[in-house]
Design goal:
This is MBL fold metallo-hydrolase. It comes from Kribbella yunnanensis. By secondary structure, the protein is α/β, with parallel strands linked by helices. The chain is 17% helix and 29% strand.
Length: 254
């Protein structure tokens, strides 16, 4: 398996001849946020068999990035998101949508995918009536992968997502404060331990920052990656932490 981190929550999972793209943000700006680390992903990032969208927030369901994705890729989205996509792009995009909710199982190419609960606000927000569940995804391959989306810890996490080999786990955010429904580095390490992963790739940090906030709490920008690695080493030193930079890939054996 080859995993590429393009920044924020955007990753490519390339396994068994199938390519999955998570929460694609393929541009250098999201509304008031700008990419401050690494260039925008190369066109290669859009080459995939399916997109996995975790929830409708604009930094995860980034409508501007959808035209940069392969035209024949399925769009796996939380229930209710197809209507939002249809509003902006019409049937050419909404007809490609597969709407899901926690507990659903689908097959993309050679991969079986289970939709996992995420404890996070799934509404589009702000100033929008579109809403649906926030989800994560478990990809059953060799190795298996849990893509968390945005979530906090919850009681049934281990039972729903684990045991799994690789965790793509969020460890930060995009602003000077980390609100509810997110994992900080210490809670992210606990999440990895709960799902039984032997390899962890921290994501959702050190990519986007609000315009004009360059000097506001810079420790919230890059530090979460190293903080997660330290927290993981203290909690379970057997877990291999692959700390990537945007555009970098890692290979994980089955």
């Amino acid at each position: 398996m080859r995993i590429t981190w393009w920044g924020h929550a955007t990753t490519t999972i390339d396994a068994d001849g199938t390519r999955l793209l998570t929460d694609p943000v393929l541009t250098s700006r999201i509304a008031h946020l700008r990419r401050r680390r690494g260039p925008a992903p190369t066109p290669e990032a859009g080459h995939c068999d399916a997109v996995l969208v975790s929830h409708m927030h604009a930094d995860h369901l980034h409508l501007t990035s959808l035209p940069l994705v392969a035209r024949d890729a399925a769009l796996v989205v939380p229930r209710g998101a197809a209507r939002l996509i249809h509003h902006d792009y019409g049937a050419a995009f909404s007809d490609r949508c597969i709407e899901v909710a926690p507990g659903h199982q689908i097959r993309i190419g050679s991969l079986d995918i289970t939709v996992i609960t995420a404890h996070h606000d799934g509404r589009r927000l702000p100033w929008s009536s579109y809403k649906g569940p926030a989800v994560g995804y478990r990809v059953d391959s060799a190795p298996s992968v849990w893509f968390a989306g945005d979530t906090d810890l919850y009681d049934d996490l281990a039972a729903e997502a684990g045991p799994v080999d690789v965790a793509l786990v969020p460890v930060g955010g995009w602003g000077p404060n980390l609100g509810p429904g997110h994992l900080n580095p210490a809670r992210a390490a606990e999440a990895v331990q709960r799902v039984g992963a032997s390899v962890a790739v921290p994501v959702h940090f050190g990519t986007f920052w609000p315009i004009g906030f360059d000097r506001v709490r810079p420790e919230m920008f890059l530090a979460p990656g190293d903080q997660f690695r330290a927290a993981m080493a203290q909690l379970d030193p057997a877990v291999q932490v692959n700390l990537l930079v945007p555009g970098e890939s890692t290979e994980v054996a089955g």
